[in-house]
Design goal:
The chain contains 14 helices and no strands. It is mostly helical. It has a single domain, classed as Na+/H+ antiporter like fold (Up-down Bundle). It is globular. It is found in: Membrane. It comes from Brachybacterium endophyticum. InterPro entries: BilAc:Na_symport/Acr3 (IPR002657), Na+/solute_symporter_sf (IPR038770).
Amino acid sequence: MSAIEDLLQLVIAVAVPAFAIASMLSMGLRTPVDTFARQLRDRRSVIAVLMANFIVVPAVGTLIVWMLSPWVPSAVSEGFVIVLCAAGAPFVLQLGAMARIPFDESAGPMAVLLVGTVLYMPIVVPLLMRDVQVDAFAVAGLLLGTMLAPMVIGIGIAGALPQRAEQLGRIAGGVAAVAAVLMFLSGFGANSGFVLDLLLSPSLLVAIGIIALAFVAGRIAGEQAGPTLRVPDGPGILTSQRNIAAALLVARGAEHHGEIVVAILLTSAVGFVMLVPYAVATGLVRRRRAGERTTLARLIGVGRDPGAERRPGR
């Protein structure tokens, strides 16, 4: 049994950075510089999204987690807190396509949040950890090397090879998807007994509450946003899909991180179960209202969607 557990731990050790690097590279390849720049010029939207993701969600969520700490294992609570601090997930692009949200309204704020996460987590996470020691400088180096650098490289490749950027982005996205599957299977497999205990405990309700809190905070931010964010529930999806890659990278830098990793993966799984049906249903309604032909490819966010294409730069 120990040989199997060692193998699963090895898979986790490889899959987590592979997932982070591939997903960030894919995001960079699919996010033009002008999209990022245009988003920065809309200060009202930037402030609304940053406040929701880096003030409201971490503050309120952490307070709730601490209040419920008597009923939630310590390591699981720490995992939840790390998730609350991580924003800017590449999977937002897929959810946005499902929900028929214009590409720029997903990609622009997501890029802003990713940069914010790289700056925010090394400072805030060590302050919020109560039972786990986290090295701020190690976290900063890890996020810069495995998240920000691949995104910048992707943007550079997209600028040099614009005709190949979308294809390369999909290839990198495929690698990220495979790494994610391996990450979940190995993470849950190496801690199967603990996972079952969590599913039958209040921890599952806390994970559901985190996603719901983030969606509401993002939805309110969407109502206050400026002209670059025209679909109010776009920021809701953006905020509730936490950056699992960043959270896992930070968690693996802590001692005895196995249970923390499981808590993060549990939150990700709960978010997937809650957000994908919402995005598909919302996208279906929007396409029918617009009189567009609905196909399975469009519903799952992989088909060309005239209502969610990039807007030309202004």
